[in-house]
Design brief:
Elements: E1 3-4, H1 19-22, E2 25-29, H2 33-43, E3 49-53, H3 56-65, E4 70-74, H4 82-92, E5 97-102, H5 107-116, E6 120-123, H6 128-157, H7 173-185, E7 192-196, H8 202-211, E8 220-224, H9 233-238, E9 239-240, E10 252-253, H10 255-258, E11 263-267, H11 274-286, E12 288-289, E13 298-299, E14 303-308, H12 312-317, H13 323-329, E15 332-336, H14 346-361, H15 370-378, H16 384-398, H17 418-434, H18 439-446, H19 450-459
């Protein structure tokens, strides 16, 4: 068994290879030294990493040690056929691409290969451009599948939470410190814990860390831990095999695998069930994931960022969070101050949301006069930046800033007006009705925790 790492190059006359080929790790499994040598020479200058194994036992050991995007698997080998080992791989929780190679062009083998989960099927002998095209197709398909999954999750959350593509807005000393911390931590693989009240921009900060990191071209996968029911969150994070539990009609990759080589953002980390906390700690320490129902752990390379609006030290003291998980997450902490502590950031936020929302709503932006801005800066903004966005949206719809917040004299602005409370109640109940009373889904769309929504509904006798 040998492994190779070489700089990526492209040669004139080669087929058009996508960028995923250059970033891929490939494992060659074939008992013929000549075939292994041919495939290695073909791939080593075009891929990030190439490894080879002469038998399935060596290949299995390599798969347990590190992540491979694709496996080139010979079907006829001493001891065990490739298609039989592929079945075992899928049953053990390996979700990577596999191209089966065989010298026998019979229909039965092709059917077996597809049923076993082969991504493609190649007949010997083949030329280098044929195998390269097959690999490029598989990697393209895999990447598109993952990107589509992540984008569907993003679209489901819009417009309940605003995406600013990692843009940290504000000129206060506190925000300058946050930007400095992001700049320091982004290039590092260090786990980061982001703390702050709801609406202060924890996900925006996590995106900034991702976009300024070496992983910027890979997936950013946000997960609201409070919005996923406790009985399925393990499957959502780690994936599952077919038949692992009632309703598991097919195998599925978890969010850790969709975030491979990228960033996984665990929002509301304090809401994780206790049983899952120990498993997450194991993943952080070992960088290995075991899908539900699987017998083996699979290596993953993911940068983890967590966030919370709760006091995790209090949760540790009360036994709601494991102390070892807290210390492992809290390697570096970025605290996002509430808006009431940085009123000088209100004007930039109003300007940002005015620009974004006027475009979305196809209406003319409203000029914010100095006396209006002065009153906005007096308001305590308990909902932080999220509340600013809601008020700007409402002002664009009404054509002026709401009079229940804006008082043009010197009268103090209420901490939170009754009109805003009614607006909040109407909006939350409207979303709840739209999802048929499903509180977990409503909380996800609203961008709040399930406990917060339950508390609101109890207060409203709903």
């Amino acid at each position: 068994m040998t492994t190779s790492n070489a700089p990526v190059s492209s040669k004139p006359g080669d087929v058009s290879f996508n960028s995923w080929l250059a970033q891929s790790s490939i494992l060659i499994v074939d008992d013929e030294p000549g075939m292994r040598n041919f495939l290695t020479r073909t791939l080593v200058s075009r891929c990030k990493h190439v490894a080879e194994a002469a038998d399935v036992s060596t290949a299995a050991r390599l798969l347990e040690e590190e992540h491979y995007d694709l496996v080139l698997l010979d079907n006829i080998m001493p001891g065990k056929k490739g298609v039989d080992w592929l079945l075992e791989l899928r049953d053990s929780g390996f979700f990577g691409e596999v191209i089966l190679i065989t010298a026998f062009a019979d229909l039965d083998t092709a059917i077996q290969a597809l049923r076993a989960g082969a991504s493609d099927f190649l007949l010997k002998p083949f030329r280098s451009n044929q195998i390269l095209n097959a690999i490029a197709r598989c990697l393209d398909r895999s990447q598109l599948r993952r990107e589509n999954f992540v984008l569907r999750r993003e679209l489901q959350k819009l417009p309940s939470s605003e995406r600013n593509a990692g843009r940290l807005v504000g000129e206060s000393e506190a925000m300058r410190h946050v930007r400095e911390m992001v700049g320091r931590l982004a290039p590092l693989p260090t786990t980061v814990l982001i703390t702050g009240e709801s609406g202060t921009g924890k996900e925006v900060t996590a995106r900034a860390l991702h976009m300024q990191s070496p992983r910027a071209g890979k997936p950013f996968v946000p997960v609201n831990c409070a919005a996923i029911p406790p009985d399925i969150i393990e499957s959502e994070l780690f994936g599952h095999l077919k038949g692992a539990f009632s309703g598991a009609a097919s195998s599925r990759e978890g969010l850790f695998f969709y975030a491979q080589d990228g960033t996984l953002f665990l929002d509301e980390i304090g809401e994780l069930p206790p049983a899952l906390q120990s498993k997450l700690l194991r993943v952080i320490e070992d960088k290995r994931v075991r899908p539900v129902g699987a017998e083996r752990e699979m290596p993953v390379d993911v940068r983890l960022i967590a966030a919370t609006n709760a006091d995790l030290e209090d949760a540790v003291a009360n036994g709601r969070m494991r102390h070892d998980l807290f210390y492992r997450l809290n390697v570096m902490n970025i605290r996002l101050p509430p808006l009431r502590e940085r009123p000088e950031d209100i004007a930039p936020l109003v300007g940002l949301f005015m620009e974004q929302l006027s475009h979305q709503l196809a209406v003319e932006p409203i000029e914010v006069e100095d006396d209006v801005l002065a009153v906005l800066e007096q308001y305590s903004w308990p909902g932080n930046a999220r509340e600013v966005r809601n008020v700007v949206e409402r002002s664009l719809i009404l054509g002026n800033f709401p009079t229940d917040i804006i008082t043009r004299g010197s009268e103090p602005v209420p901490a939170r007006s009754e009109a805003l409370k009614e607006l909040e109640k109407s909006h939350m109940l409207g979303v709840l009705a739209a999802v048929g009373g499903n509180r977990a889904e409503a909380a996800r769309r609203l961008g709040i925790s399930r406990k917060t929504l339950d508390r609101k509904c109890a207060a409203w006798n709903v």
